[in-house]
Every structure is written in C-alpha cells, then in structure tokens.
Amino acid sequence: MTHQILLAVVTVIIGVGGCIAYFWLSNLVLDKTFPPRGSNAAQNLRRSGRIRPWLFMAPAIFFLGVYLVYPVFASIWLALSQGGEFSGLANFIWLFQDPKFHESLINNILWLLFVPTMATLVGLVAAQLTDSIKWGSIAKAFIFMPMAISFVGAAVIWKFIYEYRAEGLAQIGLLNAMTTSLGFEPTAWLTLPVVNTFFLMIIMVWMQAGFAMVLLSAALRGIPEETVEAAILDGASPWKVFWRIQVPQIYGTIAVVWTTITIMVLKIFDIVFAITNGQWGTQVLANMMYDWSFRAGDFNRGATVAIVIMVAVMPIMVWNIRNARRERD
Amino acid sequence: MDNIAGKRGRLTWALNIAVFLLVLLWTIPTLGLLVSSFRDADQLQASGWWTSLSPSVQSSAARTGPPATQTSGLDGYVLEGNVFGDASGEVVTFGTTPMMPDAFPAGETAPRNGGGTLVVNADGSYRMTSPTPFEAPDLVTGETAGEPLPDRGLRVFITSTEAPDFTTGNYGTVLNADGMAQSFLNTLTVAIPATIIPILVAAYAAYALAWMSFPGRALLVSAVVGLLVVPLQMSLIPLLQLHNAIGLGRGYIGVWLAHTGFGLPLAIYLLRNYMVGLPKEVIESARVDGATEFEIFRKIILPLSLPALAAFGIFQFLWTWNDLLVAKVFLGNSDTQMVMTGRIVELLGSRGNNWELLTAAAFVSMIVPLIVFFSMQKYFVRGLLAGSVKGG
Amino acid sequence: MPPDQDSRFNWASYHEFADRHDLTGQSVSISGTWTAEDAVTFRRVFEYFEEATGATVNYSGSDSFEQQIIIDTSSGSPPDIGIFPQPGLLRGLAGQGQVTPLPDDTNDWLRANYAAGDSWVDLVNFEGPDGQTRAYGFPYKIDVKSLVFYSPENFAAMGYDVPATMEDLKALTQQIVEDGGTPWCIGLGSGSATGWPATDWVEDLMLRLNPPEVYDQWVSHEIPFDDPHVLAAIEEFGWFAKTDAYVDGGAGGAGWIDHRDSPTGLFSIPPRCFMMHQASFIGSFFPAGTEFGRDVDFFYMPPYASHPELGNPVLGAGTTFAILRDTPVAEAFLAFLRTPIAHEIWMAQTGFLTPFSQANLDTYGDPTLRGMGEILVNADTFRFDASDLMPGAIGAGAFWTGMIDYVAGQSAERAASGIERSWSSLARTGGIEEGAE
C-alpha cells in the first residue's frame, strides 16, 4: 500500500516536473539558438516566434494524435475488415440488418430527444426559480450535486429506487412503494419495454439538469434589466415575460447546454451497462459496441458500431466547429 | 423577480415551495442511499428506508426447544420457551404454518394441525401443546435423505417488530472484506496524476492557440473542437494494443496517459476560451517591455487563468474519479488494481440484493467527489461559465 | 504448515507435489468468474499450492470475466491462467493462438482418471491456430444442473411430495398455486450474464423431450435454433416461467431477480416460493447456517412419463483451467490440479463435484454432494451445457438475451428465430469464434 502511494507521488513529481522541465528547457534551447539580441535579433525573433507555438503545443498534439486521432483511423480500418482482411462494407451490411442494432438506434434516438430536452427544460425552470428566492444558491448546490456522482454510483442509487419485490412483500424501492400505496400492483419497472428506457433516461436528466441550471442561470442574469421591466410595464404576465422575452435572449447558451448534453448522451454507456446491460429492449449503441467487442470478441463488428456513433456525432461536431469559428471572426 | 411581480407575497410562497419540492426531488435519491447504508441488513430487506425510524416488522420462523425438553401436563405434552431466545422484540401475530405467520394476534390460542394448541405472547413467550409426544420436525426427503435431527425443535411462525437498528458495520464490511479500502486508494492513485498532468499540457497549448499567431492555428482550434466528441469507446482497443506493443502494458502509467489524452480536448477548449478573454493590453504591454512568451505565460497568463484551471481541474478530477471504462481497460481487473467504480459494478453482480453493502460502497465512492464539489463549487461554476458560455 | 490438516486428504499427493516444486518468490496470476463465497473457497484451495511451492497466487474473480479475458488477450496482457466457465470461449481463444497447449499426456490422464473421461477429453480439445487438435484446458469442478431445490419442512407442512415425473411436477406447481403459494423462484439475473439460468431450463427440457442426438445437432447447429424441437422446449420452459402465478415476482420479476438471490425465497416466511431449478453450485448462496437435508434438499428434475424412452438424462457443466501465459508456476498449478488433494480441499467445503476417481469421496463436506454424485451415477444420458458449447456470441450472448426477451413477453418463434439469425450471420462472416463442429 505504501508502495502504491509512493508510486503515485513519484509519478506526480516526475509528470509535473517533466512537463515543466520540457517547457522550460525547450524554451531555453530556442532562446539560445535564436538569441533575440545582436545583429540578427529581428530575424531571430521571427524565427523563434515561428517555432515557439509548436513547442508549446507539441505535448498536446502528441496526446491528441495518439489518443484520439489514431484510434479513429484504427477503428475505420477495423470496421472495414474482418479477420485482418479488407471486407468492404460487409460489417455495415450485417449491422444494418441486425435487429439489436435497430433497437439500439431507436433507443439512442429516444435518449437524444428526451434527455437533452428535459435536462435543459428542468435546468431552465430551476434556474429561473432559484434565482428569485433568498436561499437560491443553497438550492442550486443541491440540484447541481448529482453531477459529482459517478454514473455507477447513480446506477446504484436509482436501481434501489426502482427495486422490485413480488406483490405482498414490503417494497423497499421508493417507486414501487409509492405505486403500491396508491393501490396499484408492484411492477418490475426496468423490465417493461420502452418504459424502462425512460426510467434510465430519468437518471441522466437527474445528473445533468444541474449543469444546465448553472449555465442558464448565469445567462438569465446577464439579460439587461430594462428589456424585462419594459415588458412588465406593458402588462405581460411573468410567464410570458419568461418565455417570450427572457428565453429568446439566451438561445445561445441554451444551444451550448443542449449540445453538450447531447454529446454526452450519444456516448451513454455506464448507466445502461450497470443497470440493465441492454436487456429488456434497453440496448444502446455504446453498450452494443462494448458487447460485440468484449463479449463476442469481434472487434471488427464492435468498431463498426463505434463508427456509427462517430457519424451520428459528426453533425454536432461540425456545428461546434462552425460556432467556434464564427465566434473568432 | 419578486420586486417586480405584483402579488408579491403569494408568489414568493409559491416560489419557495416549488424550489423546495425541486430540491427535495433531487436529493431524496441520494438521501435514500445514505440512510440505507447505515441500516441493519435484515431491517433494510423488511422495510423501506423512509420508515427506518419506526420499528420494523418482520416475519420469521423461530424454533422451539428440542423435543427432549418437552414436559407433560394436564393438556398433553408441552413445549415452552421464548421465540426471541436471548434477544428482544415484540410479537404482533403468529401462525402455525409457514404460509400464515399472521393468522393469530399475539396472546390468542391457536389450534395446531393434527391436534394441540399454540400460544405466542407479545413478549415472545410461547406454549405449544400436543396430545401425542413431540418428535423432530417432519421432512419430505429428496436426494440427500437426511435423518430428522432429534435435537431440532419445531417451527413457530411469527411476525414481530424490532426497534430501529442503525450500524456502521456495513462500511466496515465493504471497506475490508469487499476491498473498497484498497479500491479507494487505487482510485486516488489514478485520479490525482490524471488531473494534474493534462492541466499543464493543456495550459501551454491553450496559450499558444489563444495568444500566438502562427499558420494553421484556426485549423488546430477546429480540430480540438472536433475531437471533443470522439466516442471514447472506440479508442480503447487500438490504444491498449499500442500500449502493449511499446511495452507499457496495463498499469497506472497507461491509465494516466489515457486520461491525459482523453481529457485534453476539453481542457484546451475551456482554457483557450478563457485565455482569449483576458485583457489584451496586459499581454501587449508585457511584450513591449521585452518579456518572453514563456515569461508572459508564467507570470501573467497562469495566475490570471487560475479560475479556469481550477474549473477544469475539478471537472477532470470528477471525471477520472468516477470513470469506469478507462480504468477497466487500461488498469486491469485484479483485486489489487480495481478502482471503486469497477468494484461497485462487481458488487452489483455478486451481491445484487445486499443493498446495505451496495449503498455503503456507493457512498464511499461518492464522499470525495462530494467534498470536492461542495468546497470548490464556486470555482467550478465560474470557470465553467467563462469557458463554455463564451465558447458558444 | 498447510492451512488445514485434514486427515481425510491425500497428504501423500501433497508432499510428493511439494517435493517436486520449489517456486519460492515466483507468482502466478489467475482470473476467473468465482466471486464472493466461491472466491473464498478457491482461495483455500490455492493456499495449499502456495504452501507447497512457496509461490504466490494472485486470483481475481470477476462477474464480467468473459469480457475481461477478451480485452486481456487481444491486448496481449492476459493473466497466466484463465478459469473458463464456457468451453466455447476457450475454443475461440485457442483458435487464435492465445492459449498454450497442455502437455501431451493430458488426454490420457483424463481418460485414465476422470469418470466418463472421453466426454471430458472432447470438452477440452480444440483446434489450434495450426489446425492441430490438442488439449487446451483442464476441467476442474463439475456442476450438475438438473436439480430442483426445496425446503423439506415446508413441503411437509403443506403435505407435498417430491414429484417423480414432469407431469407430477406440473401438477404440484398448480397445486401450490391453489394453496395460495408461489411454486417457483426463477431468478434469471446475473449482472452482465443475465439470462443464462434460462438456458439451463431450456437445455434440461430439451433432453427430456428429445433424444440426445437432437440435442447434439442443436449444439452443433446442424438443426436451426428455431427448429420445432427447440421451440417445444422453450415453450415448455415458458409454461413455468411465463405464468405470473407460478413465479416469485411474476414473469417480469423472473427476468429481474438475481439468481443468487433466488434461494432466499425458499427460506423466507411466508415462503416466496417452494422450488428452485438450479445447478449444484448454488449451495454457496444459501443463507449462512443452512443445513442440507434439513433446511433444504433437492430432487432430480424429473423426466416426462410420456417419454419413457429417454430415461434419466442429466445436464452438467465443468469449469476449465487454461494457460494463457506459459510460466513455470502456471504449469505447476495445472500439475497441482492433478493431485487428489486439490480436489479434496474443495470437496470438504461446498458446491464442488469432481469426476476424479482418486479423490477420497469421504471428504465431501455435506450429504448434498453425495446425493448429486448419485444423480450422476444414475444418469442414462449425460450432456454438457449447450450454451457453454455454442459460440460465445450465441451461448454467452444471443441465447441469454433471447430468453430474457421471451420471458418478457416475446413469442418463442420470434425469440428463437432472432437467435438463429445471429448464429447464421456469424457463420457467414466467420466470426472469430467457431461453434462446436
């Protein structure tokens, strides 16, 4: 155990020290090679100015290249091959005919429609409500809290809420306790097709609404007071003021929140993996990929599913890039 | 809003109640987890956690003393004793068959199948009579064909209440027997370097992308934004193969590197957005004064970017602490390496119904993130806002 | 000194082994599916190995072993030894060249020392990457699957008898419902392996409705998965599992409840169920202090009176040890498994059966295991778990999910044809795991 702590401490020192040493030394070398003094000062400055950004970025580019770009190409090759030999679109043809893929696709679309929308909506309402009361910041902290919890932790929390016991037994799951006290039969919620996907999605909304709330609350507070007050003087109800005047002014932030959650949802894995493992019709693409890669041991098919996820994320990626560019111009 | 809305009093009330309900809705799940993790295992199985402060009701089978302890009295053969033995409790109802532990209220005299009577009183004392001598319990023997044990008593079925019982024993069990203590350390070992290293790497890159001009900058920024959305899952196998090919294998160094790589796009994105917004004059004047880029970065940019650095630091820490997949693939699954999330998934499988252990384990894994979160929430929010709102 | 000096153990074999192996300071990593109680028991077994050789054993048990081992091998970082619950998975890895063949005398040893040795030889011999068939695994620990567990006292209290035929069993099922009880605990949950207990049901019923030849054709995919023979067995399983009143938690609960929690239903008051179909290993999951023969007993899953020609078939499974990274300690460990004492240590505890004829039968820790041994002896037909023999994507994937979908409401035809489609699509692209030939 002490060995492990020592290892971690040494790594932090080596890692941090290494990083600092790299930046410091590389700068030193650059400045020595092209001293910004003497007869060639101007030329040297220009030269070092051309090289320095790359020195600053080299480690980042290395990591991005190895850990994110390379795997994309490796996966594309895997998806287009079978047993090490090029197989064209055979894997995709198989995939598009696979009923489990259809199920995953439909579920992913459900996730995409429901979770970002609900999280944003709840976040918006929570932002508006908490901003107008005295203990708003405390309330915010509690609503934001699930963000700190792991997907696995959340899975335990919610699996317990959905826990099911046969009729006649004491229900220790909150949901079934409520339904039975209302006189309904206890239900194994997570085995009910379609409904169960919604129960899984609620977990994600629970975790992400706080994030939406925090960003949206800041945006709402950034709206100039005058526009709101003018509307109220015109006799608009608070409801109308909120939806007609305030919300349109923060569309930009809403879009950011919405896309951020959407990206997260597309990659949703842990919740499904830990709670239903894709059974009872709750399969999603990321878990299907995991299943094929690590359960069936077929990396080619696993990569094929991954490519589909990639392609699905692509529009958001493009949208993000365009936004980033527009902002710079 | 309340200063401009007309019906101030009522609206404020409604608002407060609405927010209170929302907060309640959002905290109840976690509260249930916390309460359950301190409950006695049997009570947790017998009643919902929201009733944990009231006595719990359980049905169970108690055994009489062995037939050898019977006495004979006026009403035939008699077995007497207390269903609770040395423990205490209160019998509410009892029965003579396993299907009906609630057939008779405590104190009433119930007829037994095949003659005789049974009384169980509220304090647990019982009296069982029979017209014929008591024998060891009847068994329907299958393949094992055991002889009835002569020293085994007959079953009495009771429904009893027990005082609420809270314990910290569940934590002891998960920490030691189920290995959460080791996993806690493993998670810590993964998370700290995996948080610090990407911050450093990203800070330099973000500065270059924000304040240095060079050809290809726009393209690089776009690339970083694009890489934000690459699904992590597809990277796992190619990278693990790479790690093995270069002799890194599986272990902490691999996890740290992987987390650094996966965390970088967000780090660069957040930090660059923040640094772009820093006042231009400060940097320009420093340049005019002859400060090198390295000095500007170290003496001006880093201190000014502290909120963003902190925000990303918290973000990355939570992410690496809570991660399941990266650790599962790059670190390995052995007892000495498993992180807490992995351990909990194992527990969900092997102890799926032991909620007292699952909840305790989950809470152990949540303590540090919650502390970090609540103590540093301000920085987190500030950095998040600066980074992403502007970025949109 | 060894952890426990049990005089029933074959100490000669221990000392002989200890004298031949000195591996002080070395270590071996072993991965398998045994967790919780099973892991504790297995630890007791390898403590003797550690004591004898001075080597250290690092065992890690995981519920998701099947997935982890694929990650491990394909990335080139496997444990030294893998304990495979599914020969199908091992077959795939052996074909890829990920497994070290065992010594050439393994097959002869199995034939000479294991009861029904030839069937064990068939189970662990696979085609390697060079196309040659060799022994790649060593079977250790056998489970009998065709068992129904019940509480003898509850049966006596309700006046029920152990059924001798499947028809009786069905009548008893209905009788229990009439008496206001729930007959069955059918927990199909098993974490990431959810659904497998259903495959045991179907396989047991397959063997009771069809001649063993049909079972073999089903396993080797000579008949399609949606063949009428298979459908009949699935629907017979559905008779039990898909009738809400017959199952603790109803058909919906059956899919949800974990198979390791199912046993508690037999012992609760009032009983949540009266019977549970499970394999012999389930003894590890009974509440602490449960006495076999008194608190719980089991009967052989009976055959149909309407199919007298099929006799008494028995379904079984065995876990297989294989060397994934060839080290002296790994080899020594496999050699250790050939000593009687390695079997006796676990026999003395619970949930372990062995076909090893040199192991001392008196060491069986409880009468259950002897009873199970009797079932084995009385078997007219012995077959291995079909799902273990099918390719991993089917036997550890589509079959499981298909059965969950079936219990959740899908028709047998639809569930079976879904599995069949997955299987034939495997054959087309030549997935890395070929089925049993």
Mind explaining what this structure looks like?
The complex is a heterotrimer of chains A (329), B (392) and C (437). Chain A is an all-alpha fold. Chain A is built from 14 helices and 2 strands, in the order H-H-E-E-H-H-H-H-H-H-H-H-H-H-H-H. In chain A, strand 1 and strand 2 form a beta hairpin. Chain A is globular, with a radius of gyration of 26 Å. The model of chain A has no long low-confidence stretch (mean pLDDT 84). Chain B has helices spanning 8-37, 41-46, 169-177, 180-211, 217-227, 236-245, 252-276, 280-288, 293-304, 306-322, 325-330, 340-350, 355-391, and strands at 56-63, 71-73, 76-82, 90-95, 104-105, 109-111, 117-120, 125-130, 155-162. Chain B has 3 domains: 8-52; 56-162, no CATH class; 171-391, MetI-like (MetI-like fold). In chain B, the strands form 2 sheets. A 5-stranded antiparallel β-sheet of chain B has the order 2-3-8-7-6, with no helix packed on it. Chain B has a 4-stranded antiparallel β-sheet with strand order 1-9-4-5, with no helix packed on it. In chain B, 50% of the residues are buried. Chain B is built from 13 helices and 9 strands. Chain C is built from 19 helices and 11 strands. Chain C has a domain at 11-144 and 315-378: D-Maltodextrin-Binding Protein, domain 2 (3-Layer(aba) Sandwich). Chain C is α/β, with parallel strands linked by helices and 437 residues long. Chains in contact: A-B, A-C, B-C. The interface between A and B is large, with 119 and 118 residues.
